TrEMBL record:
It comes from Pseudoduganella buxea. The keyword Cytoplasm applies. One of its GO terms (molecular function) is metal ion binding. It is an enzyme of class 2 (transferase). This is Galactokinase. Pfam families: GalKase_gal_bdg, GHMP_kinases_C, GHMP_kinases_N. The gene is galK. The lineage of its organism: Bacteria, Pseudomonadati, Pseudomonadota, Betaproteobacteria, Burkholderiales.
Length: 362
């Protein structure tokens, strides 16, 4: 039996710097970021911490307390696949900006559940870059940091992701929605609908984004935009325009266009009941047009919608497993989430292993 190293044991004393970044839950605007579209994420209370100090042997040493995994590589070597690849991407991209990054010891710990669609990878990237920014006094604002984190995931982890996760981890908090425009990177902090709070439940089915059909969906959207003669699907605002596309491009484009419209309506300020309706519409669109839902997520969101304290529920994240998010009446989210989990366990269906992840936001 192994013993997880403490930071003191790993560094031989206190670390030089300690940074952290949250995960995110997306309330509306799924699969719109890589289409230059609009999103409404909120940060999670759960987070990833990264500590760092110079290495004394000329090699990088990266340790994940969450995985109890220690990786090392030389200054001119590539990190092996896994958590270290995301961190190495941050290091290499910072070096490409002209920042001298010496060999380091870096310690990671997180209470973000992996594979649930809460952007544990973005939190790791943003926390890593925050630690490096502090340690090396690098000039890097929060938007530029998010952009670098995105490129680390694309170029070093092989996931052709949009910008939403990194922007939310870098800029959002757990009490407000963050409106994001993926094309301009304009952002705006907004309150949740009055009388509402958020709960998140893991379906119990892990999601592996790099192994999913995420990249396939992105390619389909790009193909749809080319056929419609626009730079990106964000530039289509009339749903009738997508009707002439062949399947499945028509369905993929219909989801993106309708999802952008839902985000823009919610940004304008709607009551909690209407916001819930928009979330329900979003899940149906992700299930039917974008085909990224699974039975466990459908069962779980249906159970939540049946609860009188729930305004609406949808999958959150890329889909293919992971978690769902629900908007509930203030003061009732935890109880509603617990009821849904209990029904799933008693029913023995695809979401029988569902667990409550995030308590209500105040």
């Amino acid at each position: 039996m192994t013993t997880v190293l403490s930071p003191t044991a790993f560094f031989g004393g206190p670390p030089r710097v300690h940074a952290w970044a949250p995960g995110r839950v997306n309330l509306l605007g799924e699969h719109t970021d890589y289409n230059d579209g609009f999103m409404l994420p909120i940060a999670t209370p759960q987070r990833t911490d990264v500590m760092a100090a110079p290495s004394n042997d000329g090699r990088f040493h990266l340790y994940s307390a969450t995985l109890d995994a220690h990786v090392e590589f030389g200054a001119d070597e590539a990190a092996p696949p896994g958590f270290a690849r995301y961190m190495e991407g941050c290091i290499r991209l910072l070096q490409a900006r002209g920042v001298a990054v010496p060999p380091l010891r870096m310690y990671v710990r997180s209470n973000l559940a992996l594979g649930t669609g809460l952007s544990s990878s973005a939190a790791l990237e943003v926390a890593t870059l925050r630690a490096l920014r502090t340690l090396l006094a690098a000039e890097l604002d929060d938007v530029a940091l998010a952009q670098m984190a995105q490129q680390a995931e694309i170029r070093y982890a092989g996931v052709n992701c949009g910008i939403m996760d990194q922007m939310a981890s870098s800029l959002a908090d757990s009490e407000h929605m963050l409106f994001l425009d993926a094309r301009t990177l304009a952002h705006q902090v907004l309150p949740l609908p009055p009388g509402a709070e958020v709960i998140v439940i893991d379906s119990g089915v892990p999601r592996k984004l790099a192994d999913s059909k995420y990249n396939e969906r992105r390619a389909e959207c790009e193909a749809a935009a080319r056929l419609l003669g626009v730079p990106a699907l964000r530039d289509v605002t009339d749903l009738e325009q997508v009707d002439r596309l062949p399947a499945p491009l028509k369905e993929r484009a219909r989801h993106v266009v309708s999802e952008n419209l839902r985000v823009l309506e919610a940004r304008g300020g709607v009551e909690a009941a209407r916001f819930g309706e928009l979330m329900n519409q979003s899940h149906a669109s992700l299930r039917d047009d974008y085909q990224v839902s699974i039975v466990a997520l459908d069962e779980l969101t249906a159970a939540l919608r049946a609860d009188p304290e729930v305004f609406g529920a949808r999958l959150t994240g890329a889909g293919f497993g992971g978690a769902c998010v629900a908007l509930c009446k203030s003061g009732s989210a935890r109880a509603a989430g617990e009821r849904a989990v209990r029904r799933m366990k008693e029913g023995g269906g695809a979401a029988a292993n569902a667990t409550l992840l995030i308590p209500a936001h105040g």
